[in-house]
Amino acid sequence: MQTSTSDDRFPNHSEAPNHAGAAGLTVTERNDRYFLTRVVQAVLKPLKPRLMKPKKGSDEKTRLTATKRARRYCDVTENEVEGVWTYHITPKNSAERKEGTRTGYERRILYFGGGGWQMPPSEHHWAFCAELVRRLPDTRVTIISYPLAPKHPVSVAFPQIERVYKKLLMESTRLGERVIVAGDSSGGNIALCVVTWTLRFQEGETAKPPGAILAMSPTTDLRHEMEEIKKADKVDPIHTHGCIHDTAKTWCPGPVSDGSSSHEKPSSGRLDWSFEDPRVSPIQADLTYLVRHGVKVHGLTGSYDVLEPEAVAFRNKCKENGVRIESE
């Protein structure tokens, strides 16, 4: 992840970067696939329906337990913000903070884990976030354990996520931290949605906007209507066209009127918690706000992924709107 470069990322796997197109857009493509990867994908493919079946959701707030590995290499602090559990992962026994000379970090990553909006962050998310803290200098990661469907569909969960996000942004602004909002799969969807949505009202906010978004294989369009998805379904070792339809319907069961028109602008488009709502599908968002506030986008997509066609469509929309983006 390159958060200090002039470009941001959204890849499409040949080693040399393709610099064609708008300035600021860098697409790195790689076509190699290791033999072992092919074997693993072949083994997993028959198990796809079982692998993607969500675990039984909890009726309680999603409180997590940090993995032993994460605690071995990092310090983990639990906090509750607006009724949502957050987990701050920091370098183990940070010397300068023990001496009381500093409170904030240079960089803070707010992370939303994927799981079809129905499963809490897994041990793999903990491992990834802990590794970011270990490898990136002066960085802390905050895992946001957001409310899960089906009990908390997007119309219920998103306003709460937005409140938590704003509080954490304000905290980082006060501490002088540069914020990156990150997520994978459905978590990448939330990262894109919450940033693009809140930027609409940034002029009236004290908190500084994030410097970048990191979206890994994000869900960008919950309609899932692109014909290319069916082709990707044949090679995706885990997801299916059917399963992403099901998870989309669970997160967004249908249009809902929430009476929040006072907070909306005429240019906001559909605001009924449908698939066309920018708070649900970031492909519907007004991406010019990213340009206006200097928010870069880093992205990662995989060719053997049913979510890739829509992620590429989102990348292309970013390019059309002049967003500084680097994709791989």
TrEMBL record:
Q: Where is the Alpha/beta hydrolase fold-3 domain?
A: 109-326
Question: Which PANTHER family does this UniProt record tie to the protein?
Answer: AB HYDROLASE SUPERFAMILY PROTEIN C4A8.06C, ALPHA_BETA HYDROLASE FOLD-3 DOMAIN-CONTAINING PROTEIN-RELATED
What are the start and end residues of every segment in region (Disordered)?
Answer: 1-25, 254-273
- What organism does this protein naturally occur in? Colletotrichum noveboracense
- The residues responsible for catalysis, as annotated, are 185
Q: Which Gene3D superfamilies match?
A: alpha/beta hydrolase
Family affiliation: Belongs to the 'GDXG' lipolytic enzyme family.
Any GO MF annotation of the entry = hydrolase activity
Q: What is any Pfam family matched here?
A: Abhydrolase_3
Under InterPro entries, the record lists: AB_hydrolase_3, AB_hydrolase_fold, GDXG_lipolytic_enzyme, Lipase_GDXG_put_SER_AS
Keywords linked to the UniProt accession: Hydrolase
Q: Which domain of life is it from?
A: Eukaryota
User: Where does this protein have compositionally biased stretches of type Basic and acidic residues?
Assistant: 1-12
Output this protein's name: Alpha/beta hydrolase fold-3 domain-containing protein
